[in-house]
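Name: Cupin domain-containing protein
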Amino acid sequence: MGYHVVDPEDVEPTPDRPSEHRSISDYCDLEKMALNVYRVEPGEPLPLAYHVHAEQEEAFVVLAGTLHVETPEGEKVVPEGNIFVAEPESPHRAFVPEDAEETVRAVAIGAPPVDDVRPYEPDDE
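Structure predicted for Cupin domain-containing protein:
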């Protein structure tokens, strides 16, 4: 058995990311899901690029602020307390607009924790 009580502030931020990213799954050596905490300032994206997963399901739980997600179907607005879910093969790019008035805090959960991400180019459709 294994249990963890984690203060995200105890987890070192991942270097070279466009927003503050802390990998709880790495910190706890989780093997069956990716669990990440983000603090995103206005004008910053969460992921490194507009992307799509072949197999992974991904969910963003918005703890504070309003998250925006670009999709081929248009922009989705995810208010505090709501969850955005992307199924496999569903391109998305989560971000906070430059004109936003507040920092967004979100938790991202992905399963299985496979490295199946690939860049998505809207012009490719």
